[in-house]
Specification:
The chain is mainly beta and 739 residues long. Residues 1-59, 186-364 are annotated as: Disordered.
């Protein structure tokens, strides 16, 4: 019994704790020991330490002190060197092979130098030296070490080869700790041709739901628009998705960077599978077609269907070899006969009809009318507008640092500049839709300090105590995002007819340009949605002629105020047209400024087009020099928009031998008191007003009867009071020869 009790007591004894060694209670106090002017004589520093040292003033050379940083495991090291009385001190960092990594000399005489986040894995050498010969004195070296944390910059990273890997969507914390500090980050972009996983889905921010008006699955509804950034419509006439599944209905455009449409009349996919329906476009870098008139997709399989751009559920007169699905022709949809190749009535539009485009809205994106337009362009020998190369839009957020003016750049893998911006002191930058090429797999984001001041007073700002954070992510808008930088015309973001782009006005003073390219004359309707806190301006801009020329604003819409949309109607485009989105000027403290910005809510710019067949006005036509020619007996429609819009029409009667009696009838519209004014061109080129009709009777018609001598005449249409506009309803002007 006694033995058992003794054994039990022995087992209950607490186990011995192994010796953990000495506990650090504070930084080690060290003293520099000469000689230490070479790396092999360096003083070892393995933990938090404070070193008392002195630089000897020597007339022929500068004294130097070497220290070896050798922690037992990887550490982030903060290095501080006190100033020299009456002298300027500097220090440098070397690797284990004595290669210089970085030098710090940001302050002036008598001031300390600091490096807040040197990464040490193994060993690093410090060299402390005066900035010039003959200077010396006592100084203190402070070394503080800590364990590295995730999401933390590791210095030095001032070259591409030393760049910190920054995954999309993650945040890094870093310092602009000295005047020469430059931080490089390596961003790996997802491959748009590869799904995010094994389930066939696209990466986040690429796939999404269809837009409004998308084609319906199974029902085959005509004129459906395929999804943007997601599943394309399966109904007839749908565009295939951008970066997603293409439409399966007839007349569909195949997807960009995704599966092409399977319906008749579809365009093949870009970087995806081509269409199996009739009349796809021929592949570039892909398989050729197997049937006559087949145009294969880009980077994908060719089309197997033959023939033309068909319509759905309708009969019409079409050219040979252009019959569509189920023997249907080019033009009409759902039983519409006797139409031209664009599905538009050949007779003049009825005066009772309303709308911007000849009494009706333009055909839906991907409809048979769009396919017919392409077919006519091809028949006429006009080359199709080549597709723009795919791009990726990035969102970059950089927090501000007190006293620091940051400079941010985006570089390609070859270190070619793609984007750059200088921020104001302490400013937080929220940059949206920074465009990079989708073919690039790697880009670099570089953050550094900007120069401030001029001449001898120029310096680069820094802050060794306050960190910044950087986050780079992919925009959710995907292929529909604007692409910065686009603040100049030659950098304009491409936009397609029937498509849209989402953009941001940020930072303050941002200006965005977009370019529409067409293969035939069209009339475009440009719509810009409103944004909270922004008063947007939408303009059509003409590039400068010659190197020293200036841009010309042809049209400008700013009818709306903050949060309200803007529009441009009946814009004539044949080839290349440029549009500008910017904030309006406002007066603050007696000065006109453009300080609108909103980096959270995007605007959307949308362009729809119809062929220009002469029955609609062609903007810009606000001067006699840009007047549109009139044909006697042929009505023309137009809108009074924006406010103070003026439309000129030219009637040439100079070849008439005698007077010509004419009657001009202007059908009014709601809201606007339209006025009609007849001018005659004088021999000196100036206009003289000869008759008016502006009773201001609301939507009542106006009429002018005049016996015109041989010459050139101009009809002017505008709001009689220059205070109202109407973007929706169209007036109609008809000039006829009478008895």
């Amino acid at each position: 019994m006694l033995g058992l009790m003794m054994a039990a007591c022995k087992e209950d004894k607490a186990p011995e704790v192994p010796d953990a060694g000495p506990v650090e209670t504070g930084p080690s106090a060290l003293t520099e020991k000469e000689p230490n002017d070479r790396p092999d004589q360096a003083l070892d520093i393995t933990r938090n330490s404070t070193v008392s040292a002195e630089l000897t003033a020597q007339p022929n050379k500068a004294d130097e002190d070497w220290y070896r940083l050798a922690p037992s495991s990887p550490r982030i090291v903060e290095v501080s060197v006190s100033g020299l009385p009456g002298g300027d001190i500097t220090f440098e960092v070397y690797d284990r092979d004595r290669n210089r990594l970085v030098g710090v000399n940001s302050e002036g005489e008598g001031k300390p130098e600091r490096f807040p986040n040197l990464y040490v894995d193994g060993e690093r050498f410090l060299r402390v030296v005066p900035a010039r010969k003959g200077v010396g004195g006592a100084y203190t070296l402070e070394v503080r070490m800590r364990v590295p944390e995730d999401g933390e910059e590791r210095e030095p990273n001032d070259r591409a080869v030393d760049a910190v890997n920054l995954p999309l969507g993650q945040t890094v914390t870093a310092f602009l700790g000295h005047a020469g500090d430059e931080d490089w980050y390596r961003i790996e972009l997802p491959d748009p041709s590869q799904p995010a996983g094994g389930d066939g889905t696209m990466p986040s921010g690429v796939q999404g739901a269809p837009e409004e008006g998308s084609g319906q699955d199974g029902t085959g509804q005509p004129q459906g628009q395929g999804g943007q950034q997601g599943q394309g419509g399966n109904g007839a006439g749908g565009f295939g998705a951008q970066q997603g599944q293409g439409g399966n209905g007839a007349g569909g455009f195949g997807a960009q960077q995704g599966q092409g449409g399977n319906g008749a009349g579809g365009f093949g996919a870009q970087q995806g599978s081509g269409n199996s329906g009739a009349d796809g476009l021929t592949a570039q870098q892909g398989q050729g077609t197997n049937e006559a008139e087949g145009f294969a997709d880009q980077d994908g399989e060719g089309n197997t269907g033959a023939g033309g751009f068909g319509t759905q559920q309708g009969q019409s007169d079409t050219a040979p070899g252009r019959e569509g699905q189920d023997g249907q022709g080019l033009a009409a949809q759902r039983g519409q006969e006797d139409t031209d190749t664009f599905g538009r009535e050949q007779d003049a539009p009825s005066p009772t009809l309303e709308g911007t485009f000849g009494g009706s809205e333009p055909p839906a994106v991907g409809s048979a009318a769009v396919g017919a337009a392409i077919a006519r362009a091809l028949d006429a020998g006009v080359p199709a507008v080549p597709p723009e190369p795919p791009s990726v839009a990035l969102k970059i957020e950089l927090t501000g640092v007190d006293g620091v003016s940051p400079e941010l750049s985006v570089l390609s893998a070859a270190e070619a500049p793609l984007f750059s911006l200088r921020g104001k002191e302490g400013e937080t930058l929220s940059l949206r839709n920074i465009g990079v090429r989708a073919t690039d797999r790697v880009v670099y984001v570089v953050v550094k300090t900007s120069w401030v001041g001029t001449g001898k007073n120029a310096r680069r700002t820094f802050n060794a105590t306050m960190p910044y954070t950087l986050t780079v992510s992919q925009e959710e808008a995907g292929a529909s995002a604007e692409l910065e930088p686009n603040d100049e015309l030659h950098k304009a973001t491409p936009i397609t007819a029937g498509g849209y782009r989402q953009g941001f006005l940020a930072p303050k003073g941002d200006v965005d340009h977009f370019v529409l390219k067409t293969s035939e004359p069209v009339l475009a309707k440009v719509e810009l949605t409103g944004v909270d806190r922004l008063d947007l301006v939408l303009s059509m801009v003409e590039p400068p002629e010659g190197e020293s020329g200036k841009e010309t604003v042809l049209l400008r819409a700013n009818d709306g105020a903050i949060k309200e949309p803007e529009r441009l109607n009946n814009v004539a485009c044949n080839g290349t047209c440029y549009f500008r989105v910017e904030g309006a000027s406002r007066k603050v403290d007696g000065k006109w400024v453009k300080d609108f910005e909103n980096a959270e809510q995007p605007y959307r710019i949308t362009i729809t087009t119809v062929p220009d067949n002469g029955t609609e006005e062609r903007e810009p036509n606000n001067t006699a020099e840009r007047a549109q020619d009139l044909t006697l007996g042929q009505p023309v429609r137009g809108t009074v928009y924006p406010v103070k819009d003026t439309d000129f029409f030219r009637l040439d009667l100079s070849d008439r031998p005698v007077r010509t009696p004419i009657r001009a009838t202007l059908l009014g519209i709601l809201k606007v008191d339209v006025g009609l004014y007849l001018h005659r061109m004088q021999p000196d080129g100036k206009l003289s007003l000869v008759q008016t009709a502006d009773r201001a009777k609301g939507d009542q018609p106006e009429s002018i009867r005049y016996s015109a001598e041989p010459g050139v005449y101009f009809f002017e249409v505008r709001d009689a009071r220059n205070r109202e506009s109407n973007f929706q309803d169209s007036y109609q002007l008809t000039v006829e020869e009478t008895e």
